[in-house]
Amino acid sequence: MTTDLTAAQVRAFRVRTQQLDRERGALADTAVLALGVQDTGPDGSRWALANRGLPEPDPAELVLLWTVRGAPHCYRRADLPQVVAAAAPYSEDDAARRIYDAATPLRAAGIPVLDALDTIAAELRALVPDRMVKGELSGAVSARLAPPYVRDCVPCGRVVHVWEMPFRLGATRAGLELEPGTSPPVLRRVPDLAPAQEPDERFDLVRLALHLMGPTTPKLVAAYLEAPLEEVRRRWPQDVVDVQVEGRTHQVLAGDAQLLDAGPVRGTRLLGPYDPFLQVRDRALLVDDRARAQQLWPALGRPGAVLVDGSVVGLWRPRKSGTSMRIAVDLWQPVETEDLQEQAERLAAVRGVRLAALVTTQR
Questions:
Q1: What is the DSSP letter of 279?
Q2: Beta bridge partners of 87
Q3: Measured at the alpha carbon of residue 252, what is the angle toward residues 276 and 22, in degrees to the nearest 5?
Q4: Strands 248-253 and 268-271, how do they pair?
Q5: Are 24 and 159 in the same domain?
Q6: Does 329 fall in a domain?
Q7: Do residues 274 and 180 both lie within one domain?
Q8: Based on the domain organization, do 166 and 296 belong to the same domain?
Q9: Is the residue at 25 inside a domain?
Q10: Could you read off the pLDDT of 304-324 as tens digits, one per residue?
Q11: Measuring CA to CA, which residue among 60, 68, 46, 86 is closest to residue 168?
Q12: Could you say which of 189, 207, 227 is where a domain stops?
């Protein structure tokens, strides 16, 4: 096994573990669905799954939940009891970190954050017999909660309502899923959901991040999960081996180590802005030019990334107009136009529109 790795070898490893190198796959063996695929933006999880060989998964077999970092993520519905258990905070400190400033008034009132999340979840379960629009539900639950649970929200016109992150985490704890394609979001109750007491190893978030985003470190995984570093270290798998990534010690699961020597990967993908491949925290291994990295990961309005043979070689942005769409691609190096055209056509098909134009520029 190679133990001194280049950035290119790390990227190739992640392409393979995340299955970006396959043309067709099955829902049951799509690895990223265990960790969760962020569903942000018009392409979201649908396009991420299409890029892993699932252009038309059965929507009834998928579920959307607020989980990692409080963002909406897509999972297999069959895994729901395990996913809800795995997504729960690891500890009181972890729960406080996940809800940001909302922890301050709770702690000042002597209310443990984990207890607060249970309280919010119980109220949400009582309020949603079937389905409810988020704004209506937020207003209803806020009226039932004590002052430490709510805030005077200036952006909402000084409306008093429950803090956002406790609401999101409480909704998942309550067994509420997000209805796909709704804006504003609609939450609906999952019938007869019974979360697992303890998630089994296949759904452990730390282990999954190590598998899909490795070689990596506890610090990088903690940053991805927004979890306390000590909690990640406590859960760090024992079956790991050390490797050097550009002079720094990282680790990889022993069972994955053979993939480090599997050679280069081939293929072109237009990755969505929140694709799992782009969610890693060692971004310099993907884009080592600071100016280009800032273009790919701005504070607002992220573009997608052009991935060719395991390397990020440019950016892309879609523009939809009626039933058609244009895609503008900004390349950092020459790319085979035919491969980009094929990806653009696939994206248009997933969106259910016609591709009007693919416009490429090279800088």
A1: -
A2: none
A3: 45
A4: unpaired
A5: yes
A6: yes
A7: no
A8: no
A9: yes
A10: 999 999 999 999 999 988 899
A11: 68
A12: 189
